[in-house]
Amino acid sequence: MKSTDTYRKIPRQARALASVDAILEAAAQILQGGDGRFTTNAVAERAGVSIGTLYQYFPDKNAILIALARQELSLTGSAVTDSLSQRETGCELDERLRLAIRALIEGFHGRQRTRKALIEALIANGLSEELTRPVDEAMQDILSNAPRLPSGTIPKVRPVTAFVATRAIVGTLRAAIMEESSFIGSPEFEDELVRLAHTLLDSSH
Amino acid sequence: MKSTDTYRKIPRQARALASVDAILEAAAQILQGGDGRFTTNAVAERAGVSIGTLYQYFPDKNAILIALARQELSLTGSAVTDSLSQRETGCELDERLRLAIRALIEGFHGRQRTRKALIEALIANGLSEELTRPVDEAMQDILSNAPRLPSGTIPKVRPVTAFVATRAIVGTLRAAIMEESSFIGSPEFEDELVRLAHTLLDSSH
Amino acid sequence: MKSTDTYRKIPRQARALASVDAILEAAAQILQGGDGRFTTNAVAERAGVSIGTLYQYFPDKNAILIALARQELSLTGSAVTDSLSQRETGCELDERLRLAIRALIEGFHGRQRTRKALIEALIANGLSEELTRPVDEAMQDILSNAPRLPSGTIPKVRPVTAFVATRAIVGTLRAAIMEESSFIGSPEFEDELVRLAHTLLDSSH
Amino acid sequence: MKSTDTYRKIPRQARALASVDAILEAAAQILQGGDGRFTTNAVAERAGVSIGTLYQYFPDKNAILIALARQELSLTGSAVTDSLSQRETGCELDERLRLAIRALIEGFHGRQRTRKALIEALIANGLSEELTRPVDEAMQDILSNAPRLPSGTIPKVRPVTAFVATRAIVGTLRAAIMEESSFIGSPEFEDELVRLAHTLLDSSH
DNA sequence: AATGAATGAGCATTCATTCAT
DNA sequence: TATGAATGAATGCTCATTCAT
């Protein structure tokens, strides 16, 4: 039922690349539509591609979902770790943290309806781990490569703490998306999340 | 698309009540099974009841899911608000908060696999709001009936803060369940959540 | 599939009669409603009677339909033949014919929606002969007991002619009902049908 | 409830056309069979086609019925109007009328059992208007394009008259089919209908 | 007699996937 | 490579009818 390989064949030619892109874009659009119409045939049709071609590049329906999820969420993870691993001297810890949170919010912000549908679709197809994995990886990354405190010491963060902190933040963001909350764009929302994030670092005291 | 009424007819005879219970129990078991076998026919069969009987009490498939969700999660919400609204003199704020968190964790704790599957099924069937609603109601409840601070003043909690706080806690719990994390039973987990919860009350400073 | 006996048991007690009446009335009402909700359970419920009781008096669903059809259409046939067989001297043939047509129209006129639904239901349940039979019987009746012409001779009407004449008239009425035509109440409509009926008698020239 | 579009997709390949034909032919045969077995699965099976293929070309069960009805009755309407609109000089009015009636009868004549079942099926599925529509259109056509009288004047036919005339004729034909009457093939039957039809034209006197 | 809970065969429809062209 | 016709297992749901109470 689960597809381990995302792509059936690596598309080499320009034409093939265009097809894959069209398929993913079509998938995103249909997801955005919101009606329960996310079928392989519908995706192919919207992509202007035959259903046969679709199956040339994706072994099954889930593969499309996974590919789309990776595309949509990859920025997110890297943006956060990038922000956190910045080592420019002038950059205060507080500021770096805020930037990371901001990157995270922005990552989740765009194409909100698509993301909501994507999350639902992933879960509906038994691929919820596909959602938690990147979060966990980011967390591991942060833990092993944590930003130094002003004192220069590396904070010792317990696994539980890390778990709760990451899930709390991502869970809040996910809830905001799923409930189509208008908070998500506001500065107060960012403030609250930053405050939440401090929990992570303050726990080492 | 959505089923507003959970039950089609109120069961009067003992026989009927037994049927409804059997159906819900069968639903829980099948969900627990984890295969994508949650079909009305499968539920009826496992309940030892005909498909017709099933539909005598539930207007459609979703209604079963909703009824099960309410049964499984109702304790949760009320347990929390009960804990929070305790006004025994000797009971410190900290203690009350901890009790509320504990109630929440315990509500989510039992039958973990069933709950995970239930959550997935609710989302897969477009009923994700059924998950957020009780949380939101609890939040409203807390907001309008907040525990007094030691000083005797009622803390003014902004909506954003309340939103973030509730979603952070529930999001963490949900993640713990979905990832089948072993943290969920540990005291440290509870500690971390309590610390998180303080964020809500401390925001009025 | 077809029910030859309309009633399972002849209701003797007042209570039983009331039940039967209630059931037929409920059936008529539901038919009138027009939504495809004509189910035995729905009829029983509307009649304020249990489904078991319904089956005490009607062997199957079709029996209800047939009983209702006979009740609704019996007047029609007899009214026509009554009109046609009047032998009062002062009554001109033309006048008698008009009265017969009028009786027919009036028979079809009331409870138009119910009749339409009844016709549809009868056909849908393979009971279309239940509709044609009374017409045919009336025709036989007329043929063997035709009104005398002014000259005192009995007109010789060929079977084909009788067939066409009766079907033309009833067919027109039925169409008017099925199409919910507003013509059905107008005097011109009556005039036209009378003219049509003359075909029958004039054919013997 | 009603299917406005008869076809879901227009068949392009020869294979597809063959499928559609097979489905319609199978539908006709099953209808002819007379058992209440007109199910989509039965049609597909008899057509030697998978149920999926059936639904590729027909949006729902009713669409099959409608398509079949149009195929079976289309000739009818056009044949009549063709006959009526003939303007060859040598052709008398009487003759043209007779030809029209003959076309109508022939249209209804063939495959009598299929037609009976088709009519029943249309009505049973709430598509009775599908039966009256072509008649009404033909009537409108005749009204606006009536054959000239010998005198050269265009007869003014009142709507009621047209209604009664068309319904009388079609109603008679329908009755003949539904009752499986043997009259339908006889010359006398045609004569009677022609006489009936004269009613329409003679009404302008 | 009346009740109403239970039954289950049966049906319309969907959609991921294949494969001949 | 691309196409799209074909597949068919699978599913949600209805409703006439029975029978224990």
Automatic annotation (TrEMBL), chains A, B, C, D:
DNA-binding span(s): 39-58
Chain ranges of the HTH tetR-type domain: 17-76
Lineage of producing organism: Bacteria, Pseudomonadati, Pseudomonadota, Alphaproteobacteria, Rhodobacterales
InterPro entries hit by this protein: Homeodomain-like_sf, HTH-type_TetR-like_transc_reg, HTH_TetR
Database matches in SUPFAM superfamilies: Homeodomain-like (SSF46689)
Annotated keywords: DNA-binding
Residues in coiled coil: none
Name recorded for this polypeptide: TetR/AcrR family transcriptional regulator
PANTHER family on file: HTH-TYPE TRANSCRIPTIONAL REGULATOR PKSA, HTH-TYPE TRANSCRIPTIONAL REGULATOR RUTR
